[in-house]
Amino acid sequence: xxxxxxxxxxxxxxxxxxxxxxxxxxxxxxxxxxxxxxxxxxxxxxxxxxxxxxxxxxxxxxxxxxxxxxxxxxxxxxxxxxxxxxxxxxxxxxxxxxxxxxxxxxxxxxxxxxxxxxxxxxxxxxxxxxxxxxxxxxxxxxxxxxxxxxxxxxxx
Length: 156
Fold this sequence. Notes:
Elements: H1 2-25, E1 26-30, E2 45-50, E3 59-63, E4 91-98, E5 123-127, H2 137-140, E6 143-144, E7 148-155
């Protein structure tokens, strides 16, 4: 009987740790707006895995700066940050078009590119799939890594 009790207790502790990890590492996000159509639609829900650096082509959730400028409110609430409530922030879902070291392609930043310009260290070019309505790097330039909450893991 003691071996069964120990197994049950170990399983319960393991389950509690897994739930704690999931609650801090995976976030459920509801899509608002049309900037990611046709991939995502208004009202879709996605799971976001926090703390993982995204690769080119992946979708991310990123903290929204002030409209039209590259100024973010307060301290970063992105990768690895666990101290700021997520509900106090405004978020965007975008696709990673370029990572640090990649060349900046025409049209990615909404301005003339400098010859040989590359994405600076610690930054990304993020674009919406629907450029007609997307607020992204074409309007504000590079997004800092510290403002990325995580990468979209899967659509529900």
